[in-house]
TrEMBL record:
GO molecular function, one term: oxidoreductase activity
Domain of life: Bacteria
Ranges for domain Aldehyde oxidase/xanthine dehydrogenase a/b hammerhead: 20-123
Cofactor(s) the record lists: Mo-molybdopterin cytosine dinucleotide
PANTHER family: XANTHINE DEHYDROGENASE, XANTHINE DEHYDROGENASE SUBUNIT D-RELATED
Protein name per UniProt: Aldehyde oxidase/xanthine dehydrogenase a/b hammerhead domain-containing protein
Amino acid sequence: MMYRYIRQAVPKVDIKEKVTGKAKYGGDLKFDGMLYARTVYSKHPHARILNIDTSAAEKIPGVVTVLTVKDIPGSNTLFGGFHVLTGDKVRFIGDGVALVVAKDPAIADKARKAVKVKYEPLPAVFTIDEALAEDAPQIHESAEGNIIDNSRHCLIKGDVEAGFAEADIIIERTYETQFVEHAYIEPEAVVAVPDPIEKFITIYGSIQNPFSVRGNVADALGWNMSQVRVVQSTLGGTFGGKDESAMVLSARAAVAAFLTGRPVKIVLSREESMLESSKRHPYRFNFKVGVKKDGRITAMETVVIAQGGGYNNKAQFTNWRASIHATGPYRVPNIKTEVFGVYTNTIYGGAMRGFSSPQCIFAVESLMDEIAEELGLDPLKIREINALRPGDTTPSSQPLGPGAIPAPLLKMLKDVTEKTDFLRKREEYSKTNTGPIKRGIGLAVAFRGAGLGGEALDATGAMVSIQADGSVTIISGLTENGQGLKTVHSQIVAETLGISMDRIVYPNVDTTIIPDGGPTVASRGTMIGGKAMVMAAEEVKGKLLQVAGEMLNCNPSELVIENERIYSTSNPELSTTYMEVVEKARSIGVMLAALSWFSPGVADLDHHTNQGEAFPTYVWGVVVAEVEVDTETGKVEVVKVTSAHDVGTAVNPENIKGQVYGGIVMAQGMGVLEEMEVEDGFVKSLNLDEYLIPTAMDIPEMDVMIVETDDSFGPYGAKSVGEPSTEIPAAAIANAIAHATGKRIRNLPCNLERVLLGHKLTRKGVRK
Ligand code: MOS
């Protein structure tokens, strides 16, 4: 298909503002009479609050007010059990117990040290095992045994006992992952601005999901949702992280703004951001797998436990996704997977790019390599034998193949391993690794359910509106988080309307001008949001052609728009222009605007077995990583990562590459460097001087292979790449390290100590 904008490397539409420094981030915003607020955080991981004395802080010149739980006009409890300000007991050290509001941030910072809080420390639990111990102290009254409400999800297919009986060998393994920080470049910043006339408030800020913020701010104020307007400022990264923290901070700022009648701004320091925002959930996987001598898997029984931390509003969702993906993209006839989450008195897990899949893929792809080792097969062979292919069904029994969901995994495996010379290098390194620096090459593969699927109802809207001068406003309920959503949607609308992309203006989300389109998560921006854009643009195009038909005296169905020229396919001489039609439409009272709504509908899924339509479609990925391991220091250098992704149709190939480059580096951090270490409930490093993420000096050579498949679901056949790009490389790197050293690390990250000490399952630094 020949397109003008689709499949083109169009530069990002919002790039100029960003590179020239003109873009306005939450922290840049200023309003007349604006006050600044800072939070007083808990001093204990688990304690009853006996008394909060704010009197000394209130007397400090410049302090306007100090708020505690008693000042919250509406509900103090927000989605997921988080609090605007914690009043009864603190459950982790990021709990906010008071809010100091002052004329400048330095005064607020000084005054919060004068707030005196009396605590009665309570026994606490810091690990999955401690949380599940029989006499464990309970963190949330409603969560018996510290099991997170609704966090249990199972996938049952076939009969695992029969499958194990058929197996020649049974292998059992445990893998664990760590807390990982999003490390977005911009810490959280929000401003709440009360309306001077009406009972109405506007929140601006660094917010990933404006509609969930709107609902929670309304709850905190005790107002209606329609009295709250949330406008997203330019975002300096989020990756799933600016959700719970943005919700809590917006609620605090809104309450302070309402009570003082003045705009109130909260900007987090890096330390506060790392303390208060969510992390990637640590997961533990216990696998029991049955295999035939020829490599065929007969059964997999898996127990997966997520560490939720002190609060939760995501484990029920990340765990559902894990239940579908925990056995990988393999033809496993008999599956029993159980996933659940537990509370601990630690920093908490939430959404982070991948949403449980990087953890699942690390575990299952390590397991596949270990199965191959047991059987004397190579990592490619074991995957070729078991990979899902056309004619198979997914773990939830969705059919794959022609006319159904594409399943290009075998072909991708072949292409990627050939391009990287995988088998030859594997053999060569095994022979030549005699010195202290050892080379290794590793493989990992995955599939991923695209969009929300059975996790929650997926639905979103779009508005396309042509103005009298021919410029086009487009609005989505989904947000530009830096991933390129505005660019991709603009390409889709320009392509559909047959107009120049230069005409399009795409403002940030404002909750008063577009219906709630759900959160910008689950790699759904292009696929679901883009589909809504096509629908709105098609409707407006229909109106343009109707008017053009009247002008040209012909049937609109024979008209097409190309490069802003509207002409008849039967008689190309019969033509007019986009601008002439826009003017005509205006003169005869035709509204050139449309509001669309797209939803794949409620997933047809049995929630006890997770059999049925888990996702409308899937994407597939294959990654090969090459490493050099210094066995004397434990340092891992990631030399090269080759990453192949099925994107359906590549709407913007350069933007896809950008996603994949970033995804690889984020995964490299998870694979070899990053862990938010918690000791007795306290975080060891709360800044990026000690919490190390990959820098420009660490970035490997990267080769991105874009794979297109024929999938009719999304707009122009486009699917997802944002999360897929970061979910696989950590697993491939871990497999490459095991190849290089001959020692398998079953506990991420593969940092210096673990590389030196080899397999070490116990989480370090948990208790002194
Ligand atoms: Mo995302 S991890 O789906 O915000």
